[in-house]
Each structure stands twice: as C-alpha cells, then as structure tokens.
Amino acid sequence: MEEPKKESLNFIKQIIEKDLEDGKHASIQTRFPPEPNGYLHIGHAKAICLNFGLAEKYNGKCNLRFDDTNPEKEKTEYVDSIKKDITWLGFDWEGDARYSSDYFDELYTMAVKLIEKSAAYIDDLPAEEFNALRGTPNEPGKPSPYRSRSIEENLDLFKRMKAGEFENGERVLRAKIDLSSPNMHMRDPIIYRIKHATHHRTGDTWCIYPTYDFAHGQSDSIEKVTHSLCTLEFEVHRPLYSWLIKELGIYPSEQTEFARLNLEYTIVSKRKLRELVEGNHVTGWDDPRMPTLSGIRRRGYTSEAIRNFADIIGVVKRNSMTDVALLEHSVREDLNKKANRVFGILDPIKLIITNWPEEKEEMMMAKNNPEDGSAGTREMPFTRELYIDRGDFKEDPPSPKKWYRLGPDREVRLKFGYIIKCTGFKKGDDGVIEEIYAEYDPDTRSGQDTSGKKVKGTLGWVSVTYAIGAEVRMYDRLFTTANMNTVDDDFKNHLNPDSLKINSKVVLEPSLKKAKVGDSFQFERIGYFRVDEDSTEDHLTFNRTVTLRDNWAKK
C-alpha cells in the first residue's frame, strides 16, 4: 500500500514544528494585528490565512488585535469592516477582539520603566533638527542636547506630557539606544508622542500615544504571542523590538518575517487606496475594482477562492510579483463548481423564427450546472422571437471551419432548443442589421433529436416575450501597469480608463427574476457575474466577476 504523501512544510511551519518538538512552547499563539486606519486588502488576506491557518493546524490560538495608536486616522468603521472581512474568510479569533488601546496603561508603565533605567528621555528638538543630527547609515549621529537629562526631569516631563501641559510636537519620548548603529531604527527612535486627538475607543482620556513600533511588540508580549509573523519590511524593526524586550524584561515574542503579497496590476498600500477613495477615482472602499476584501467580495470573488489562492502562492522569504491570472484562476475554479449557468445576452439582436407559429410557446429544459449534479434543471420559454448576441452573427462569415456561429445559410443549435438555419436578415437605414431570420427543424429538439444532423455551433438565446432587462458593469483591472512597485511617477497616472464599462441594454432569461443580491451566475460563454447591492426589485445590476478565461493579453 502506497504511503500518503508527506506535506511540504514552508519555513514558518518548520520553525513551529521544531519549537513544539523541542518543548519551547506547549502550544502556539499567533495574532493578526491590523491598524484600523482603512479597509483590508488582498495582501492582508494572505496574512489572515497564515496566522489563523497556523493556529488551526497546530491546535493553537489566534488573536485579533487592533494596533490603534494613531487616533487621527482610525475609525470604528474600519474596525467593523475588518471584523466582517475576517469572518467572511471563514476565521474566528480567540475570545474578544483586542486593542493596543486596552494596554495603554501598561504601555505607559513600561515607558516609565525605561526612563527609570535611563533608557529613555524626553526630547524637545523638532523632528527636522533631530534628523539633522541623526547621521547616515555610514556616519554616526550626534546626541540631542536633551539626551543627558536626569531621570527625575524626564519622569516629571513625561508625567506633564500625559497631563496635557504641552502642545502637539512640543516634546517626544525617545528610547536611548545607539546613535552609531547602522540600523537607523536604533538611533533613539520616538516611542511616545503628543497627540491632542479623540481616540475611537478611549475618547480624550489620553493625549500621548505610543508609536506603532513601541506598542506593537509590547502588545505581542502582553498577549504572550509565541510566533509574531510580520512582512519583510519589519525585518529592520526586529532589533528594536528585541532591545525593548530585553530592557523591559518581558515575554520574548519571536518575530519571523515573510514576503508580502505583490500582485500584478494592483497596489496594496492603504495610503494609496485611501487616496483613490478620497479623490473619487473609485466609488468607495468596496468598489469592485479595488483590491480591498470588501471590493473583491462585492465583485463576486469567493472566500474559498481567496483561501485557495493563499495556499497556492505559499509563504516565502523573498519578495516577488504574483501573476494576477493565478488569482483569477482560483476564482474561476471555485465558481465553476458553484455558479448556475444562465443565458445573458450583452449585445442583443432579434432573431425571428419564421416557420414558428406566432402564439406557440414551448418550455425547454436546461441544466443549471453540469459540474454540480444536485443543481437541478430549469425551464426556459422558447418563442417565435428570440434575442441572440450580435457577435454570434456575421453577414459574410469565414469558412465553416473558422466560424461555427450563425450566418446566411448556416445552421446552428440554439442551446437546449432546436437547430435553426439562417434564411436572411434586415438592415436599417444606417446599414446596421436589425433582425435576423431563420427556420427551425422540428425534428431537432434538444434531447429528442431524430434528425441525425450534426452542427458545431451552439448559441445562447432569450425569449423576447419573457426577457428581463438588466445593467451589467464590466470591470477590468484598475491599472495598466503590471508592476506598480516600479513606477516612479504619480501612481494615478497608471489608472486604466477602461476599468469600468456599463452596459444597460443587456437582456436575461426570465429565471433571473428570482435572483438576489450576492447570487453568482455564469453567463454562458461570457463569464461570471454577481448581483450587486445596487439592484432593486425592478432593476437588476450585475458585476462581472471574471471572464471565462484569461483574455487580458489578447486585448
């Protein structure tokens, strides 16, 4: 009997398994620590799947902690959206959500301890003056004239900072580390600053706030996080976190860095995404062109597809660019199994079956999803006048070997219906074809064909009598440049002017009258579409989720 294939472990799993095997930890504790200053994006999905996924795999726990140390940019709206995104992805955090602001008293006490050890001091220098003294990676910095303040004076000033005696920017608390370190983060970094701003949770209780670098590592320690997983840009911050752990004598959370997700035609910077929203370049954080989780959810991407994508790209130590086609493939693979097939005609033209009696109607039986045996069937009314897609007819088509659709004297099958033969067409005064005429063969009804005819072309159709109108938003990639990390001009110069095209002349089969917001369908031979939140009872709006195949390179 063949042994089951052993799982290939990424470097983080290898670290965890060794730690557990060596008894370093009895169990693992991870955390997902977003700042509540914007909506989560596809890059965060990778970190969510990693942190929560590892906790699940190794029977550990994963906290959700909001590192909320910047009251001017944080909102409860962002907190709520982040919780919703994590839940949508199928994960649940340990206990209640946590916040760095829960630990403000402890963090303040830690800062006092550093002052008492002469490991921190109050600095009065404006930022530009301190930076002038800071030096370069190859040249040591010079000390601030306030670096030698006494412990007593520093404690008094820090207490007065907390009491609100000073203005924003008037003083900061700096860690006293090493002005000759080649790592600039070790050259007396700010760990507390004055901000007279209302916090989304603590209100006006505090007017001094810890910096992210101070609060993040210490919050990990307070929560006894065994494996603190960060993206590579935090590698240079690790010596600072280690120094603080040593100086404070607190729980030694161990940081490990991994490569962030860089996706083609995408930006994963909350600052830039906010700029798109505030500059009205998109309709909001949940615009289906945005790489935010709320945006891709509205577009019709599924949580299962995102989790599968995260598994496929894996966890590595070096930054690289991920082909967006890989993400779209994951979405197609998932929707192919779930989405019912329907007929949606994006560019309708009338087809009249001249030998079909005017009042006659037949109900055709259509499969909902050939990939899902439990999806069942539906009835479609077949009438004398139908809509087909204009692109399925050519007045002067190529040879039958190159054109399998409809043309003069050509035969095709109307899917789930009959074989028809084109007998003519009518043009308007402008030379545009207005109607197509055909005759059907009554011996060729789908499932009951006794004619022996073989045709290669199969077309979608919708009864004119029962068609329902809809609006379809055809979304494409937001940017025209593949690697947005390499642009050296304003990133907005690379916005795709064709990232959204609205089609209001679409006709759909009548079964879609029952479609609800959030339902996804495959429009046969076109792509996957989701019913949008803008839909009303009288007017359906669909977002194109993804095409049936990657056709970007063919445009």
Provide structural commentary:
By secondary structure, the protein is of the alpha/beta class. The protein has 3 domains: 11-258, Rossmann fold; 270-340 and 470-554, Beta Barrel (Ribosomal Protein L25, Chain P), CATH 2.40.240; 347-411 and 418-447, Beta Barrel (Ribosomal Protein L25, Chain P), CATH 2.40.240. It has 12 helices and 27 strands. The strands form 7 sheets. The protein has a 7-stranded mixed beta sheet with strand order 12-25-26-27-23-24-13, with helices on one face. Strands 21-18-19-20-14-17-22 form a 7-stranded mixed beta sheet, with no helix packed on it. Strands 4-5-6-7 form a 4-stranded antiparallel beta sheet. α2 packs across α11 (303-313) and α11 (303-313) crosses α12 (324-338). The chain is elongated. The mean pLDDT is 95.
Can you describe this structure in just a few lines?
This protein has 555 residues and is an alpha/beta fold. The protein has twelve helices and 27 strands.
* CATH-assigned fold name of the largest domain: Rossmann fold
Helix content: 10-25%
CATH architecture level-2 label of the largest domain: 3-Layer(aba) Sandwich
The structure class reads: alpha/beta
Quaternary assembly: single chain
Highest CATH level, the class of the largest domain: Alpha Beta
Question: What's the number of helices?
Answer: 12
Mean pLDDT: 95
| Number of domain modules | 3
- Spell out the CATH superfamily of the largest domain: HUPs
Summarize the main sheet. Answer: 7 strands, mixed
